[in-house]
Amino acid sequence: MTARAVTDATFDQEVLKSDKTVLVDFWAEWCGPCRAVSPILDQIATEHSDKLEIVKVNVDENPQLAMKYQITSIPAMKVYQGGEVVKTVIGAKPKPALEADLAAYLA
User: Fold this and answer.
1) pLDDT tens-digit profile of 34-90?
2) What is the span of the domain harbouring residue 19?
3) How many domains does the chain have?
4) What is the Cα–Cα distance from 3 to 25, expressed in whole angstroms?
5) Which has fewest Cβ within 10 Å: 7, 75, 84, 87?
6) pLDDT tens-digit profile of 6-20?
7) Any signal peptide, and if so, which residues (predicted)?
8) Of 104, 105, 74, 69, residue with least CA distance to 92
9) Reduced to 3 states, what is the DSSP secondary structure of residue 14?
10) Is a pLDDT exceeding 70 seen at residue 1?
11) What pTM, to 2 d.p., does this model score?
12) Cα–Cα distance, 49 to 74 (Å, whole number)
Protein backbone atom coordinates (compact mmCIF):
# COMPACT_ATOMS: atom_id res chain seq x y z
CA MET A 1 0.00 0.00 0.00
CA THR A 2 1.44 3.34 -1.03
CA ALA A 3 0.63 6.51 0.85
CA ARG A 4 -1.84 8.65 -1.08
CA ALA A 5 -1.00 12.23 -2.01
CA VAL A 6 -3.17 15.01 -0.61
CA THR A 7 -3.11 18.65 -1.66
CA ASP A 8 -4.17 22.07 -0.42
CA ALA A 9 -7.53 21.35 -2.06
CA THR A 10 -8.13 17.90 -0.51
CA PHE A 11 -6.39 18.24 2.88
CA ASP A 12 -9.45 19.45 4.77
CA GLN A 13 -11.65 16.57 3.61
CA GLU A 14 -9.06 13.78 3.67
CA VAL A 15 -7.17 14.69 6.86
CA LEU A 16 -9.04 17.13 9.08
CA LYS A 17 -12.48 15.56 8.56
CA SER A 18 -11.27 11.93 8.59
CA ASP A 19 -12.71 9.71 11.29
CA LYS A 20 -9.46 7.74 11.28
CA THR A 21 -6.13 8.74 12.73
CA VAL A 22 -4.08 10.19 9.85
CA LEU A 23 -0.31 10.60 9.61
CA VAL A 24 0.69 13.29 7.12
CA ASP A 25 4.19 13.02 5.67
CA PHE A 26 5.35 16.48 4.59
CA TRP A 27 8.08 15.86 1.99
CA ALA A 28 9.73 17.07 -1.23
CA GLU A 29 11.10 15.32 -4.30
CA TRP A 30 14.63 16.70 -3.80
CA CYS A 31 14.86 15.62 -0.14
CA GLY A 32 17.05 12.51 0.33
CA PRO A 33 15.86 11.71 3.88
CA CYS A 34 12.25 12.06 2.64
CA ARG A 35 12.89 9.45 -0.03
CA ALA A 36 14.55 7.19 2.58
CA VAL A 37 11.58 7.30 4.97
CA SER A 38 8.92 6.88 2.26
CA PRO A 39 9.15 3.06 1.90
CA ILE A 40 9.15 2.71 5.69
CA LEU A 41 5.92 4.71 5.91
CA ASP A 42 4.46 2.57 3.11
CA GLN A 43 5.26 -0.57 5.16
CA ILE A 44 3.67 0.91 8.28
CA ALA A 45 0.62 1.94 6.23
CA THR A 46 0.23 -1.63 4.94
CA GLU A 47 0.74 -3.29 8.33
CA HIS A 48 -1.51 -0.91 10.27
CA SER A 49 -4.09 0.19 7.68
CA ASP A 50 -6.92 -0.60 10.13
CA LYS A 51 -5.59 1.91 12.70
CA LEU A 52 -3.63 4.57 10.83
CA GLU A 53 -3.99 6.17 7.43
CA ILE A 54 -0.81 7.63 5.93
CA VAL A 55 -0.90 10.38 3.32
CA LYS A 56 1.77 12.61 1.75
CA VAL A 57 1.93 16.35 1.15
CA ASN A 58 4.56 17.63 -1.27
CA VAL A 59 5.63 20.93 0.32
CA ASP A 60 6.85 22.35 -3.01
CA GLU A 61 3.43 21.79 -4.62
CA ASN A 62 1.39 22.74 -1.53
CA PRO A 63 3.19 25.68 0.12
CA GLN A 64 0.04 26.92 1.91
CA LEU A 65 -0.13 23.72 3.97
CA ALA A 66 3.60 23.87 4.73
CA MET A 67 3.19 27.44 5.99
CA LYS A 68 0.00 26.72 7.93
CA TYR A 69 1.58 23.81 9.82
CA GLN A 70 4.96 25.57 10.21
CA ILE A 71 6.97 22.97 8.32
CA THR A 72 10.55 24.27 8.51
CA SER A 73 12.43 20.99 8.02
CA ILE A 74 11.50 17.83 6.18
CA PRO A 75 10.64 15.06 6.42
CA ALA A 76 8.08 16.16 8.99
CA MET A 77 5.31 13.77 9.98
CA LYS A 78 2.26 15.00 11.84
CA VAL A 79 -0.43 12.77 13.30
CA TYR A 80 -3.97 14.16 13.20
CA GLN A 81 -6.97 13.02 15.23
CA GLY A 82 -10.28 14.81 15.01
CA GLY A 83 -8.73 17.57 12.91
CA GLU A 84 -6.00 18.35 15.46
CA VAL A 85 -2.25 17.66 15.42
CA VAL A 86 -1.58 15.23 18.28
CA LYS A 87 2.02 14.22 17.47
CA THR A 88 4.92 15.54 15.40
CA VAL A 89 7.94 13.52 14.27
CA ILE A 90 10.80 15.34 12.52
CA GLY A 91 13.46 13.65 10.43
CA ALA A 92 14.02 10.26 8.82
CA LYS A 93 14.23 7.37 11.27
CA PRO A 94 14.53 3.60 10.95
CA LYS A 95 11.27 1.64 11.07
CA PRO A 96 11.59 0.51 14.76
CA ALA A 97 12.13 4.12 15.88
CA LEU A 98 9.16 5.38 13.85
CA GLU A 99 6.96 2.57 15.18
CA ALA A 100 8.02 3.47 18.73
CA ASP A 101 7.13 7.14 18.08
CA LEU A 102 3.74 6.06 16.70
CA ALA A 103 3.05 3.22 19.17
CA ALA A 104 0.09 5.01 20.77
CA TYR A 105 -1.64 5.18 17.38
CA LEU A 106 -0.74 1.67 16.19
CA ALA A 107 -1.94 -0.26 19.25
Assistant:
1) 999 999 999 999 999 999 999 999 999 999 999 999 999 999 999 999 999 999 999
2) 4-106
3) 1
4) 9
5) 84
6) 999 999 999 999 999
7) none
8) 74
9) helix
10) no
11) 0.95
12) 24
CATH number for the domain spanning 31: value is: 3.40.30.10
pLDDT at residue 5, as a whole number:
94
**Can you tell me the distance from the alpha carbon of 63 to that of 68, in angstroms, rounded to the nearest whole number?**
9
Marked catalytic residue, from 24, 34, 55, 89: 34
Residue type, 71: I
Report pLDDT for 85: 97
- Give alpha helix (H) positions in 1-107: 11, 32-47, 63-68, 95-101, 103-106
34 is catalytic: yes
- Residue 98: is its pLDDT beyond 70? yes
* 93, 101 Cβ separation under 8 angstroms: yes
What are the beta bridge partners of residue 54?
A: 23
Q: Using alpha carbons, list the distances in angstroms from residue 3 to 13, 24, 40, 93.
A: 16, 9, 11, 17
Cα–Cα distance, 78 to 24 (Å, whole number): 5
78 part of the active site? no
Cis peptide before 75 (omega within 30 of 0): yes
